[in-house]
Design goal:
Elements lengths: L1 E4 L6 H11 L7 E5 L14 E4 L5 H8 L4 E4 L9 H19 L3 E7 L12 H13 L4 E7 L1 E2 L7 H7 L1 E4 L7 E4 L1 H13 L6 E5 L5 E2 L1 H12 L4 E4 L2 H10 L4 H15 L18 H12 L3
Parallel strand pairs: 1-2, 1-4, 2-3, 4-5, 5-6, 6-10, 7-9, 8-12
Antiparallel strand pairs: 9-11
Length: about 300
């Protein structure tokens, strides 16, 4: 039995699709934890067991982890909380339930940076790495998918790209770093969940096929979209003021700012890309498949 949390999100929906295709042949049953079962794809109906509720709820976790062999764990960051509350606080009940029910394997979504000098002052990334340690302490075999920033972050800027030809971030325009498509993270997760011959705890980097700077992204978007797109670098103080103005928890906002600063200082650049750590989806391909349709009015 494989349990999938957050099965309707950017990563979870791709993972669910892959497991619906592969799990039956492997003799695996699937169970999902979801707040709104109506958001599940049609293909899931009748083929997955559904536990309705939040995976922050100990009672929901008790039902979901009963008889489970493996769990896919993803925390949806809650900007109303502090970073510690949003990650380790959210995951604490899960760590207890994993131990109680003797779950053997957990695959989690995490971040790059472990073991680097920046890891202790990287805001949300620091909180995510602490969450990984909490899960590992439950006595499970654990693989943390160590990811850079997602291509899908650009979907939050579709209006600006469509209407003004501008996307915004806080890093140096020529700072190259790995970037990854959520679908590739899901593929890595599916492989680990289906083949549980691994043991112990470790990180699994998922780095995309190449490092790209914001200016590279602008050039590729211009080519793929057939319209000029440029990058605007936002000062960190401006980002902080904007997010606090939206009513977000100030500690969470500081966690975002610290993460952005660490990324601009090279947080995501400490892992060598190899055939094992690279993932296949390139940015141009992602633009054509995902961004371009999202920009249609």
């Amino acid at each position: 039995m494989i349990v999938i949390t957050a099965p309707t999100g950017n990563i979870g929906r791709h993972l669910l699709s892959r497991l619906l295709e592969s799990a039956p042949a492997a003799g695996e049953e699937l169970r999902v934890v979801v707040r709104d079962p109506a958001r599940l794809p049609d293909a899931a109906h009748g083929h997955v067991e559904v536990v309705t509720g939040s995976h922050a709820d100990p009672d929901v976790l008790d039902r979901a982890f009963q008889g489970a062999d493996a769990v896919f764990w993803l925390v949806p960051p809650d900007a109303s909380l502090t970073p510690h509350e949003a990650y380790s606080g959210f995951t604490g009940p899960a760590a207890k339930a994993l131990a109680t029910h003797g779950v053997g394997h957990v695959v989690g979504v995490s971040a790059l940076g472990r073991g680097t000098p920046l890891a202790d002052r990287a805001g949300l990334v620091t909180a995510s790495l602490a969450m990984d340690d909490l899960i590992a302490a439950a006595g499970v075999a654990h693989r943390a998918l160590a990811n850079p920033s997602f291509f899908e972050n650009l979907l939050e800027e579709t209006d600006s790209i469509r209407d003004h030809g501008v996307f915004t971030d806080t890093v140096d325009p020529d700072r190259k770093a790995p970037l990854v498509a959520c679908a590739d993270i899901a593929t890595a997760a599916a492989g680990l969940l289906l083949d549980r011959s691994w043991s112990g705890t470790d990180s699994v980097p998922v780095l995309g096929p190449q490092d790209l700077a914001p200016n590279d992204l602008a050039r590729i978007m211009t080519e793929q979209l057939g319209r000029p797109v440029r990058y605007r670098r936002q000062p960190l103080d401006e980002l902080r003021t904007t997010l606090v103005g939206y009513g977000l928890n100030e500690a969470f906002v500081q966690g975002i700012v610290d993460m952005k600063r660490a990324k601009d200082q090279g947080l995501d650049s400490g892992v060598t890309r190899t055939p094992e750590t690279a993932s296949p989806t390139g940015f141009a391909q992602w633009c054509a498949r995902t961004l371009k349709p999202a920009l249609q009015p």
